[in-house]
Write a structure and sequence with these properties.
Length: about 230
């Protein structure tokens, strides 16, 4: 078996290991990404705070209405109990009662608006809860699939590492050093192949003699352009 073939097969294994590790890294980032859930949780919290605020405003309005109703009762009692006979005071009481009733009417209209706002917010809150529940289901399914994929990739890496160790026993230290040097400087592609008498990486066309040299069992042949090892089958 040629030394370039051994290195080419080693490169295939290393590429598979690297791709598995990159995918595992991407999976881990995806598992850590809770942006969608966090966004709904923020909207839920905002909606709950809004509901609390509206409820507080409704209670305040109701409190004001109650106060004014009590004041009307007191003013009407003073107006009709017959004790007060001063026309000016009686007229002021009537004006006050009329003003209070108008204020109550305005407050009741405001309360209706707040109650409509409260109902709208309640519906939005319920929809957010439904969306959150559905997203949780989807997220749990996705996480389960990602974790399963990650486990499979980890097992694949283990098997590839065993296979790699087997190939390393067939490669001399000097050849392995050359392979590592090229892999480090050539974006992980130390060995190119011959495709239609050309370098599979850069496309440089080889002469018949160069193609024959690439098929040597004992010597390295380098692409004159990309300077990678060339494996010729």
């Amino acid at each position: 078996m040629s030394i370039s073939l051994n290195l080419y097969q080693l490169q295939i294994i290393d590429s598979q290991i690297l791709n598995c590790k990159k995918r595992i890294e991407a999976i881990e980032k995806e598992l850590e990404d809770n942006k969608e859930i966090n966004e709904i949780l923020m909207n839920l919290e905002s909606s709950k705070q809004k509901a609390h605020k509206i409820n507080h405003e409704i209670n305040e309005i109701q409190h004001l209405i109650t106060e004014k109703e009590i004041k009307i009762e007191q003013s009407e009692a003073a107006l009709y109990d017959g004790k007060e006979r001063n026309p000016k005071i009686l007229q002021d009481l009537q004006s006050e009662i009329s003003s209070l009733k108008k204020q109550i009417n305005d407050l009741e209209n405001e309360m209706i608006e707040k109650m409509l706002e409260e109902e709208k917010n309640r519906q939005e809150l319920e929809q957010l809860k439904i969306n959150f529940h559905l997203l949780e289901i989807k997220n749990n399914q996705l996480r389960s699939a990602l974790i399963s994929e990650k486990d499979c990739l980890s097992q694949k890496i283990e098997h590839l590492q065993v296979e790699r160790e087997t190939f390393l026993t067939q490669i001399s230290a000097d050849h392995l050093e050359e392979y590592n040097r090229l892999a480090a400087s050539k974006q992980g592609i130390a060995v190119a192949t011959i495709q239609e008498n050309s370098c599979s990486v850069c496309g440089t066309t080889f002469t018949p003699a160069q193609c024959q040299a690439a098929r040597s069992q004992s010597k390295f042949f380098y692409c004159p352009t990309s300077h990678r090892l060339i494996y010729g089958d």
